[in-house]
Amino acid sequence: MSNTDAPNVRSENVMGVMSVHKLLLSMAIPMMISMMVQALYNVVDSIFVAQLSENALTAVSLAFPVQNLMISVGVGTGVGINAFLSKSLGEKDFESVNKSAANGIFLAWAGCAAFMLIGFFLSEAFFRTQTDIREIVRYGQDYMFIVCVCSFAMFNQTVLERLLMSTGKTFYAMISQTVGAMVNIALDPVLIFGLFGFPRLEVAGAAWATVAGQVLAALVAFYFNLRKNHEIHIRFKGFRPSGAIIRRIYAVGFPTILMMSVGSVMTYGLNLILISFTATATAVFGVFFRLQSFLFLPVFGITNAMVPILAYNFGARKKNRILKAIRLSVIYAVGIMVVGTSLFELYPAKLFSLFNATPAMLAIGVPAFRIMCSTFPFAGFCVVAASVFQALGSGIESLIVSVTRQLVVLLPAAWLLSLTGTLGAVWWSFPIAECVTLAMSAYFLKRAYDNKIKIIA
After folding, report:
1. In whole angstroms, what is the distance from residue 114 CA to residue 151 CA?
2. SS3 (DSSP) at 366
3. Where are the domains of the chain?
């Protein structure tokens, strides 16, 4: 991939000169829109699948840990590329910019190869560790096999969009994500229910719709990198993986992968706890997770915009721009989560009605939603803090906070509360974990300021 019409890329990038408020919004709003559209198609997937049966919805929920692990590897690799590439731009090291992009694409293909093997050999075994209900195992195995074996689509989409984000071209990343999401949404009912002459594929149809959307999104992102991303020149002629660059990418990206992967372990463990009460509780948790994702992704849009701004200005040694970007990101993230808390507290039954909820789901889900959403604003602050650590090259703090929240606090608390024999008690593990996370995030953020930002002249 080369750009013969590239302008003089050695002029100052907009991330170093544009008003921080305007820059953050100009980068974040396209990301927020595209991420909300992406979250919407995950919700729509579940809405259509729920029309089949509660077991179908439960199967998709039980598949989430593996799907999240796959996304974790892709996003974590992209975060590492994003931070390293943006920092190299700030330092005017254009050779490292181009090499990091090429190595990033190589890493995407390496990641998808691993998950293809998981899809081929472990799909059925994974579901049988969680339930012996035949219909759930069959639905889940179909879904997991397809999304893993075709994971090349997700990996390439993620990395190619991160290259666009790294240079501030979030509008083009938004187009790529939106096109993929709309294709997924359009194909869901067609493939799930067999409309317009297509075969009725049920849960497998939701998986194929997801893959089709990801393939198209990756192609669109590839085109924009080729034609619009003039600050990056990717050439594979004579390419060899660079151990030094890969280590620098994963110095930031690997903690992110582990941090997100911890969520897979937590979800798997929590599903085992919940299904010991009733499969309906697992379906409720699956619904909560998807709706929560719809709420959290605008916050991730803010932080994804913030990371390259911080990384660039950290490389350029511009202290005031770093601090302003952090303050604005916290304000917007917490504000979004306050709105989300209000919606979850006031309208839980209406949210559940989107998923063809049975009376049993409503009886479990309504009080569960109100408990779990109570500390959403705390989570908004913690998400921003974690992204600050990553942007400054200190991803280990994010990992420590995430592991503590999900494995040291949340999962053990859920297990201990389950010993009461009351399902409702289990949901309190979420606010307990969020309060611990808030304290840890504040401490690490203060330390990052003292050790890395305050000392900038």
Report:
1. 9
2. helix
3. 18-451
pTM, two decimal places: 0.72
- State the pLDDT at residue 39: 67
**Tokens representing residue 429 in the block:** 């593990």
3-state SS, 59-105, equals: HHHHHHHHHHHHHHHHHHHHHHHHHHHHHHHHCCCHHHHHHHHHHHH
- What pLDDT, in 10s, does the model give residues 178-233? 888 889 889 999 999 999 989 999 999 999 999 999 999 999 998 998 888 777 77
Phi/psi for 13 (5° steps) reads -70, 150
CA atoms within 13 A on the CB side of 366: 11
Owner of token pair 């859920």:
414
CA distances from 205 to 53, 147, 211, 315, 397 (A): 15, 11, 10, 46, 40
- The answer to whether 290 and 344 are in contact (CB under 8 A) is no
In degrees and rounded to multiples of 5, residue 225 shows phi and psi of: -65, -35
Query: 335, exposed or middle or buried, with CB in 10 Å at 0-12, 13-18, 19+?
Result: middle
The Cα 28–Cα 16 span in angstroms is: 16
Q: Which of 40, 14, 36 is nearest to 27 (CA)?
A: 14
Question: Residue 166 and residue 391: Cα distance in Å, rounded?
Answer: 12
User: How remote is the C-alpha of 151 from its chain's centroid?
Assistant: 15
Contacts of 235 (CB under 8 A, 6+ apart): 1, 2, 98, 102
Are 282 and 65 spatial neighbours (Cβ–Cβ below 8 Å)? Answer: no
Q: Which of 62, 72, 157, 142 is nearest to 109 (CA)?
A: 157
Between CA 376 and CA 204, with CA 260 as vertex, the angle to 5 degrees is: 100
Query: Cβ distance 405 to 433 under 8 Å?
Result: yes
Asked if residues 325 and 86 have their Cβ atoms less than 8 Å apart, the reply is no
Please tell me the distance from the alpha carbon of residue 263 to that of residue 403, in angstroms, as a whole number. 9
